[in-house]
Specification:
With 294 residues, this protein is an alpha/beta fold. It folds into 3 domains: 81 residues, Winged helix-like DNA-binding domain superfamily/Winged helix DNA-binding domain (Arc Repressor Mutant, subunit A, Orthogonal Bundle), CATH 1.10.10; 96 residues, Periplasmic binding protein-like II (D-Maltodextrin-Binding Protein, domain 2, 3-Layer(aba) Sandwich); 100 residues, 3-Layer(aba) Sandwich (D-Maltodextrin-Binding Protein, domain 2). Helix 1 crosses helix 2 and helix 2 crosses helix 3. The protein is elongated, with a radius of gyration of 24 Å.
């Protein structure tokens, strides 16, 4: 394959539009060109590279293996072009395509998913893939474009920023909290605990240290299920303070002599350095940072 640096930016722009829109007609409409021009320039790019970039099918254009090899470098060129004239309107104009976000299920359902209508209004050409799994994805292997994590990621290829630090507190539904009153013994109420696969998790260790096994009413590592059970009145759970209001939970009252030494969590936004300035990734990065820092 020829050196992509020798290819004109206009041809790379056409490649990206075709890759994202899947048809010549849709790409031409996006670029303000006629279909024949897009077809001709794409054919010229393929000739320059010595590779077929797309397979022509009845459903449209399907990226060939060479297109996937070209994509990262093409997006890096797009990012460099955007930096030449960086302003909000420039990002808004260029931001399009799929952004895959890796995050934990509780964060996904409580904060990310409800914010997506606002993101869509700002950037209607961005599509989100929300990978809500406890196990983190490897950004260096491009398993996701951005990640939200409680532990700072390390690596020269990664860029990170801390969004917030939040303590966890013992929480219950308002009805259960009123019924319990001031707690004098953590074993006086039923508890929701993380399952054994997360026994080393800080909040899980806190519960294991302070709450006897007999008081555990539910074990699950599905955090939204924990929150739903507590909201329904099952008992207490450790909950980060920002989650209280969205789930209509309250911190319980307890005597000051009762040991609590709450765990706390940081929230880090992580991205791949090579993608950080790509307009679609830059737009979602700035949106998430603004949403989650408030």
């Amino acid at each position: 394959m020829a050196n992509l640096q020798d290819v004109r930016w206009d041809d790379i722009r056409i490649f990206l539009a075709v890759h994202r829109r899947k048809t010549l007609a849709a790409a031409a409409t996006r670029l303000g060109l006629d279909t024949s021009t897009v077809s001709r320039r794409l054919a010229a790019l393929e000739a320059d590279l010595g590779e077929r970039l797309f397979e022509r099918t009845r459903e449209g254009l399907h990226p060939a293996r060479a297109a996937e090899r070209v994509l990262a470098a093409a997006e890096a060129m797009e990012a460099a072009h955007a930096r030449l004239a960086r302003d909000a309107s420039d990002i808004e104009h260029l931001a399009e395509g799929v952004v895959r976000i890796s995050t934990a299920p509780g964060l996904s359902s409580t904060f990310i998913a409800p914010a997506l209508p606002r993101l869509r209004k700002l950037y209607p050409r961005i599509s989100i893939e929300l990978d809500a799994q406890v196990a983190p994805r490897d950004l260096t292997r491009h398993e996701a474009d951005l990640a939200l994590r409680s532990i700072r990621s390390q690596g020269a290829e990664l860029v990170t920023t801390k969004l917030v630090t939040a303590p966890w507190v013992a929480a219950a539904s308002p009805r259960v909290a009123a019924k319990l009153g001031t707690i004098r013994d953590w074993s006086a109420a039923a508890w929701v605990q993380w399952d054994r696969d997360l026994a080393s998790f800080g909040p899980s260790r806190w519960i294991a240290q302070h709450v006897p096994t007999g008081a555990i009413a539910l074990r699950t590592s599905d955090f939204p299920a924990q929150l739903a059970a507590v909201r329904a009145g099952l008992g207490l759970a450790l909950v980060p303070v920002p989650y209280l209001e969205p789930w209509n939970l309250v911190a319980v009252e307890f005597v000051s002599s009762l040991p609590h030494d709450w765990p706390s969590d940081d929230l880090w936004l992580v991205g791949h350095r090579a993608l950080r300035e790509v307009p679609r990734v830059a737009a979602v990065w700035e949106f998430l940072a603004e949403e989650l820092r408030t």
